[in-house]
Amino acid sequence: MKKIKNVILSVCCGVFVMACSGGAKEVRKADYNIVPLPNEIRTAEGNPFLLSKETKIVFPAGNDKMKRNAEFLAEFLEASTGVKIRITSEQPDKNAIVLSLDAPDENSEAYRLQVDEKFIRIDGASEAGVFYGIQTLRKATPVGERISVAYDPVVINDAPRFGYRGMMLDVARHFEPVEFVKRFVDMLALHNINTFHWHLTEDQGWRIEIKAYPKLTTVGSQRAQTVIGKNTGEYDGKPHGGFYTQEEIKDIVAYAAERYITIIPEIDLPGHMLAALASYPELGCTGGPYEVAQTWGVFDDVLCPGKDSTFIFLEGVLSEVIELFPSKYIHIGGDECPKVRWEQCPLCQARIKELGLKDDAQHTAEHYLQSYVTARVEKFLNDRGRSIIGWDEILEGELAPNATVMSWRGMEGGTRAAQMGHDVIMTPTSHCYFDFYQAEDTGNEPFAIGGFLPVEKVYSFEPVPGILTDEQKKHILGAQANLWTEYVPNAEHVEYMAMPRIAAMSEVQWTQPEKKNYADFHKRLLGLISIYDQQGYHYARHIFDIKTEMKPDFEKNALSVTFSTIDNAPVYYTLDGAEPTEASTRYDGPLFVSADAQLKAAAIRPSGKNSRTFSTEVQVNEATFKPVVLLTDPEPNYASSGAEILVDGLQAVNTNFHSGKWIGFQENDLVLTIDLLQPKTISSAELSNMIQTGDWIFDVSQIIVESSRDGKTFSPAGNWKNDTEEKAPRGEMLTHTVTFDPVEARYFKITVKPSIIPVWHDGRGKRAFLFADEILLK
Ligand code: ACM
Ligand code: ZN
């Protein structure tokens, strides 16, 4: 019965059944359209190569790396197909996968994969090249239980676009155990990534054993508790800690090296050093006491470069680091180092004087003091045969002579560094920060730092700025994704934030830009996801979700809603809050919602990879879907889609002000007019806004309502003043209602004024941000 079913299936999806020694067996076709897409795939004539338990993997005798490569391939093929394959260095006359180093290429990571009826040959320019050929064969192989695989004849010629293909994991904010770090390295290898940037030290924890400074781990690796959310003032009361012994680090470095991954350790200096200061308070300007940070952010207490003992410390730490990590590069951080302690510290000021550092038009003497620290550390490492990478802040002051710049605050720093002849790794927040949200509907996401970085946006990243000359372009070594873990407390969550965005990044790093195509990538991604499933990875499933666009249509006076999916999957919806099923209304074009509704929609696919249910409440009042005009400009970064979001009938569901559901003002008051299209009797106006004191967003100070019959002359209707002042940090959404004597009018003008930031806050005396979502007239 099963056999007949399989034969019928073969018509549509390439599954057929062959009789082999053990009886009937399912045979499935390999698909070379993988992620990252190889740069050349040429199909060839002939019969397919059939993988069976008689197939052998052949490696060149005496080459241990190639033997390990052969073992990897056997492990991968067994995991995917259930077929156990033997490795040997004796070449049979057919039915073998032959690994060799017979494809010389100036790019040492290049490989060629050739398939004919008798052999699959993977020839690499180096063992690393062979490893990528193996990853390609693995990804081309379908995943199933006890299947046989038919590989159609093909020639694949492939090499990566960039020599630096990185991903950073912060194990300092939240520690990850050795076993998970190895699993993470395996995940990187699956995506052809060759560099693991390991962020090992932070304000919130020091994670690497340094024998000369044992308190870094006995004291610095432990924090007493962790703040809940974004510096809310509430704590979890649970100690958090952990570190890697030097033996564990050597083991992980070797594990990564077997997979052709170089680990670049980061010792972030001179800022982000509170854990070290808590361990050795004499290294700070004030002498402390300090504690390992329990909150997130940037801290004023940093290393004191006025003291010689600081450099003795750094050289002691780095001496041990370079013994553990054979990488060419050591990352020395350099980001987010406040200068306030240095400005006040007699020893720092004496150092500034001794070095003759002066303020100039661009930078302060203290910026040049950081440059001095960086250059001194660079010299120490250069003398020992290593090079430094630093975050783009190392451009402030004077760039250390041989430094590679990691450009994170946009592309500008990296562009400038390349123009100055320095090497650059591009990792701008806009496309590379995997701690950002993956969905606009953040209410259904685990709490994240903010932002919005879906797979498609990662995919669109182009690391080489067009304005560079060809010579300068060569300085762009590659691209990297960064995963900071303030809000990523465990391994499953790391996987959720990393995959499948890392698949999109892998194609940015590997594939030539003219070959990239998002819709095509999405189809190929489904194959990679079968490996994610097989590995039990906790990947994010937004790619299966519905993309929703909602905007008020001022002609129809309704909310226009469009749904789409990347694969044109059938979408079903309901308006009464019921869970959509295949029996619900099927979406077939823009939907117009003009009355209160609880809209739900879901993509339901034959494969069972359904979307999550999209859900939103539409609430209609007199102002909803009515023409609205802003009379003042919002902050350019927080303009969202403009005034229309204030009358779209949709209330923001959380305080993520990057979600596009909020509009933000600071310089200007929010002033707008709404045209109700005909005179209406109105007696209240309601504003929804938010407070997020950590982001300088405070409650509003005043709401003024005016009305007009002609849209030209306005008269006062209502006026509300806020007489409470924030006393402490907090974040929440809130609404304010201004009630007034009923007034009949067609036009209403609303003015909303921000507060002045109170004295307990860093922004004291400045105008706060005002974030508004909806304005209601009733
Ligand atoms: C960084 O994100 N602070 C490099
Ligand atoms: Zn100092």
Helical/strand content category: alpha/beta
The tally of domains stands at 4
The averaged pLDDT comes out at: 94
Discrete helix count? 18
The CATH architecture assignment of the largest domain turns out to be Alpha-Beta Barrel
β-strand amount = 25-35%
The coarse overall form would be globular
The top-level CATH class of the largest domain is Alpha Beta
CATH fold group of the largest domain: TIM Barrel
Q: Which cofactor or ligand species appear?
A: acetamide, zinc ion
The count of β-strands is 37
Distance between the termini: 67 Å
Alpha carbon gyration radius: 30 Å
Question: Low-confidence stretches at least 5 residues in length (pLDDT < 50)?
Answer: 1-24
Mind sketching the topology for me?
Layout: H1 2-13, E1 15-20, E2 23-29, E3 40-43, E4 49-51, E5 56-58, H2 64-81, E6 86-88, E7 96-100, E8 111-115, E9 119-124, H3 127-140, E10 148-151, E11 154-158, E12 164-170, H4 178-190, E13 195-199, E14 201-202, E15 205-206, H5 215-218, E16 222-223, E17 240-241, H6 246-258, E18 262-266, H7 274-279, H8 308-324, E19 329-331, H9 340-344, H10 346-355, H11 365-383, E20 387-391, E21 404-407, H12 412-419, E22 424-426, H13 429-432, H14 455-459, H15 470-473, E23 476-483, H16 491-498, H17 501-510, H18 518-535, E24 547-553, E25 558-564, E26 571-574, E27 585-586, E28 591-593, E29 597-603, E30 614-618, E31 628-630, E32 663-665, E33 670-692, E34 700-708, E35 715-721, E36 731-754, E37 770-777
Parallel strand pairs: 2-10, 5-6, 5-7, 7-9, 12-13, 12-23, 13-18, 19-20, 20-21, 21-22, 22-23
Antiparallel strand pairs: 1-2, 3-11, 4-10, 8-9, 8-11, 14-15, 16-17, 24-25, 25-28, 26-27, 26-29, 29-30, 31-33, 32-37, 33-36, 33-37, 34-35, 34-36
Bound molecules: acetamide and zinc ion.
Residues 335-336, 391, 408 line the site of acetamide.
